[in-house]
């Protein structure tokens, strides 16, 4: 199961990868850390029998990722009053999230990474011949499989400086996921740019997510 220690071990640098896709909203620790429920795709499942907890999330690589564009859409009903003034009944603000990757390895690892359930570390950690993304995040095929398996909604966990999302300690929570949004895929496209050796190809990927 994913834990705070597992999530800390899965980030290679001071801050986690910018995006995580999950099948659930997860839980929040006492310190405000968002942790998805269940097991990550590729996690060591030795002795586990509850298949409903398998493949519950993937952590996306930051390798060659472009800007993350956040486009809010304000849902409201506007009408002009008899005196000429505009009145608005605000319903909600919803986000559209767009980003892309260039020359992303088609797979994160050459074989199952077997992420350790306690530390989050892969058995292939820092083995450059076996670990193809520099931060151990998901490659193109893992992202494509997620897209193919999710015609409905899922959750995106985001790690960026948006301190309105922090319930407390606005200066000390950049090193964790701090916002979780339920989304649908609005667009997913990929291009096989270059076929590599026997281990992986290079892909360009473009993704648009629309808030539920």
Key features?
212 residues, two-stranded antiparallel sheet, 2 helices
Total DSSP E strands = 9
Major β-sheet profile = 7 strands, antiparallel
| Mean pLDDT across all amino acids | 92
> How would you sum up the global shape?
globular
What is the H-and-E element order?
HEEEEEEHEEE
Our estimate of the beta-strand percent is 25-35%
Count of domains: 1
Unreliable spans are: none
Widest β-sheet, arrangement of strands: 4-1-7-8-9-6-5
Which radius of gyration do the C-alpha atoms yield? 19 Å
Structure in words:
The protein has 212 residues and is mainly beta. It has one domain. Helix content is 8%, strand content 35%. It contains two helices and nine strands, in the order αββββββαβββ. Strands 4-1-7-8-9-6-5 form a seven-stranded antiparallel sheet, covered by helices on one side. The chain has a two-stranded antiparallel ribbon with strand order 2-3. A hairpin with a 5-residue loop joins strand 5 and strand 6. 29% of the residues are buried. The mean pLDDT is 92.
């Amino acid at each position: 199961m994913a834990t705070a220690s597992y999530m800390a071990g899965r980030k290679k640098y001071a801050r986690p990868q910018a995006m995580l896709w999950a099948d659930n909203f997860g839980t929040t620790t006492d310190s405000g850390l968002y942790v998805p429920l269940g097991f990550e795709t590729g996690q060591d499942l030795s002795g586990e029998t509850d298949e409903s907890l398998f493949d519950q999330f993937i952590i996306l690589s930051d390798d060659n990722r472009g800007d993350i564009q956040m486009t809010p859409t304000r849902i409201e009903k506007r009408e002009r009053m008899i005196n000429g003034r505009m009145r608005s009944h605000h319903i909600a603000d919803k986000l559209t999230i767009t980003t892309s990757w260039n020359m992303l390895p088609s797979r994160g690892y050459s074989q199952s990474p077997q992420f350790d359930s306690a530390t989050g570390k892969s058995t292939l950690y820092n083995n450059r011949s076996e670990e193809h993304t520099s931060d151990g995040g998901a490659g193109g095929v893992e992202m494509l499989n997620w897209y193919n398996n999710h015609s409905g909604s899922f959750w995106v966990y985001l790690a960026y400086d948006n301190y309105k999302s922090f319930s407390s300690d606005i200066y000390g929570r950049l090193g964790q996921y701090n916002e979780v949004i339920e989304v649908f895929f609005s667009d997913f496209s990929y291009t096989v740019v270059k076929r590599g050796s026997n281990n992986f190809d290079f892909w360009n990927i473009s993704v648009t997510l629309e808030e539920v």
